[in-house]
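Troubleshooting: if your tokenizer reports a length mismatch, compare your output against this known-good record of 284 residues.
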Amino acid sequence: MQVKKIFVIGSGQMGAGIAQVSAQAGYDTIMYDISDAILEKAAGKIRKSLEKKEKKGKLAEGESKEIMNRLSATSDTKRASDCDVVIEAAPEDEALKKKIFIQMDEICPEHTILATNTSAIPITKLGNVTKRPEKVIGMHFMNPVPIMRVVEVIRAYLTADETYQTTIELAKRFGKEVVTAQDFPGFMSTRLIMPFMNEALFQLYEGRGTKEDIDKCAKLALNHPMGPFEWMDFVGLDSMLNILRNLYEAYGDQRYFPCPLLVQMVQAGHLGRKTGLGFYDYTG
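Known-good structure output:
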């Protein structure tokens, strides 16, 4: 199957990053969100990111403008009606994602692949609400999308071979390495990272160490580029809590039981970088 046009649902960190790498790879890309103001902000961040790459010599002179010309933004879901691939990057809410998949199933032509960037929700559940479960697949990008090199591809129970192969080729065109995971909650990457993050939370909650020292330990002893609290602030604490709850519901394993500290911070609205306050203060 030939892919020419891609529709990305969501313009947050993940959605905007996916839209950027899609346009960089030469695809006509439409980025969707619920309001023009949100889209304008996201487009501005993408433009700034591309211009920075150009100044550093990672893009040719004038290339950032060419990439932006392939990217458009919309608050109208009907713009997906002539797209070959939809990549959903909405918040980690199963009911919301199912609603989106039902809507895209109605709007998009029969050949369109419906991919989801979910990090924990089983793909088969999402495919089951559509009339094209063979066209539904997981395409889990890592954050930040333009920098992280891998995409986790997850086949649902009914995903067709053609859908899988097209998705693999698409990820490679995006400049990514591909790993394939089975369709179970959390797949590979999320099941690896979430117990680590939750353990860091409990260490802080129980007074075993400061957030600064735990972050330093992860970076210097484990060679992680970011400490767990820096990373959680970057991703968003509400997203972290939703993922842990999904995994705990699926497995009943204490490793995924959300630390009370995380629950309290989300209740307080301290969600990380996007609100200015998380484990660290970004208001300055």
